[in-house]
Amino acid sequence: MKEIKCKKLSLDQQQHPSQWRRALFSAAMALSHCALADQTRQIRIRATAYYHPAKYYERGGLAKPENIDFTKISRVNYASFQLDESGGIWGTDANADAQILYGPINWNPPPDAAKSCYFTSADDVPACQVHDIEKGLIRSAHSVGTRVYATIGGSDFSEPFSAMAAATASREEFAKRCVHIIQNYGFDGIDIDWRFPKDPIDMANYSLLLSQIRDKLDALGEEQSNTYGLTATMPCMPDQIPNVDAFFLDLILDEFNLLSVDFHGPWETKVGASAPLYDKSDKHMSVDSCVSAYLDVGVSREKIKIALPFYGQSFAGGFAIGQQAKCNWAGDCSDTVTWQQDGGAPNYYNIYSKLPNLNVTFDNETIATFAFGDAGVVSYDDERSICLKTEYVIQQDLGGVLIMELGGDLLGELSTPLLDAMNLKLLNRNLPCDSNAFMESLLRQEHIAHEGRDDPIIDNALEDKEVSAADFLYTGEVKQEYRYTCGFGEGDARRKCSRLGWQEGLEETECTTGQCPDGQICFLSLCDVVPTKTIQDVLLESLTPFSKPLPKGKPKRKPPKMTITTMSIPLDEAVQDDPDDKAELLLDDKMSFSCGVNFEHAESCGQPCPNGIGDCPAGQFCFWLECKNAAPAPASSDASVSSGVTVSQYKCGSTRDEALTCSEDCGSSWQCPEGKDCYLVPCSI
């Protein structure tokens, strides 16, 4: 058989992209032979995450690079750099850019200390300072084999693209500046985020622009004996996809970052899933529809990444898909009562903090999660939907996922539930997302590291692991309840009161009075109930969709019965199901819903809350408990009236440090003054 040599297709940049079509068909035949020759290549899934400069200011800098575990992703896209019509490129925040990418400024450096330089204007003349570079994003990511790209453009900085790409000179200058950015900062590639080309002229110029950048990066790579990547953000709206020449760009780009988010949001008057995996209608507004559109025009599967939003979109007034929302004004129907500090589009860490006071549902048709309260509903991705979208990428043989954005799921104790759900699925491809085993493994918060990588990728080393029915079972009754437990953080408290913690020998310390050992504080945690039966005494329950049990208002009628069914496994390995054996949820007449600043205070039952936390005064929570006749503790949560007991409370502050003064309650509706956020912090009562 004649040997076929595969090399990059070279095209005349002065030709219009439409003239390239004739050459592409003959080139496609050669490329198909190249693909066959490369058929043994293992396609590995990569996880890219956007990192925005705003993270430098949010929550007192909690998501600064030194608090990020870069082993959980394969690449960071630093977003973003801005541009002008002449082709200039520079940063968007001179203060944050330098201290994020290079680390904090070293104000007392030795005389011979090396300076790090960054671009603050279009003149291509950098400003330079000495930084603690080991704490910077670039050095931190590179130290664990994670690559870093510079993203140029974005939703706030895309306007100059059309004029810049229309002229040969400005395209050339822009491509040259891309090289300067890489050389100056130490980036590994360029990510172009033009949102979005609007017509055939933009489409042609975009192809020319990306082709020129590709040639410049290839030349730099040959000079440096290195490889520099080129990726681009691609639209998913059906009316925008035709304005991108995806068939040609497949020859130019290393990856297509599909913006498979915000299909629906509060700019519409009816509730919809913000990032549905599948679409209930024929409007082709889903992740799957977007992927299919690019595959249909010839984009390589292994180059496609789908976006995973680590934030939600809210709607005021509505509670289910298709319901009418209550609009604040034309074009804004967001729930700014519940999500005031997020402008109606909350990060996952804020959604997570309020879940105990919301009702959560999962839509199996769209693969989307909804959480609703008195003021409205938020559509978002939780651990289960992130797992299912990752599973979709695996099943479709796609290139990976695009996280929007890094830090969006970072909790106070630095755990990352959504990142962990994604990685857990990548490392255990056969593990069902609906299984108890998946959630059990996720709660372990296993450290997923990619050691020994030649290329910074996620090695799915456990993808062929056999999963048995036993993996899906706890060794006793699967029951959970909310308890006040001590811990160094929310995740630590939850772990200590779980079966996993017991198996590891961790000791749970309950804090019904709010008192904990030194260094620990009291958290309301979702805990496992100590089993009273062995595995031989209980039925094998069918795998059901995971949802976090939430406290709700007192039912007005007797709850419906819940049926326990069995899995299809050999009879000698399971207890047979009795069709008359039904589990029934019963409410103890001695139990009541009561307000209090802590559990002990609420036991006096001085303030009932049958409808949830909304019935409670500011700074108090709603508890399900048995009333006692003891005199109530002081109801004030003011820090000036202190009993020496520390509990977790929601307080307002422009930073977490300010919230730690415990001087201003968020209130039962979680509202804070403009410029302040609501934080869960330890306070004395």
TrEMBL record:
InterPro entries per the UniProt record, alphabetical: Chitinase_II/V-like_cat, Chitinase_insertion_sf, GH, Glyco_hydro18_cat, Glycosyl_Hydrlase_18
Superkingdom per UniProt: Eukaryota
Domain GH18: 51-429
The protein's name: GH18 domain-containing protein
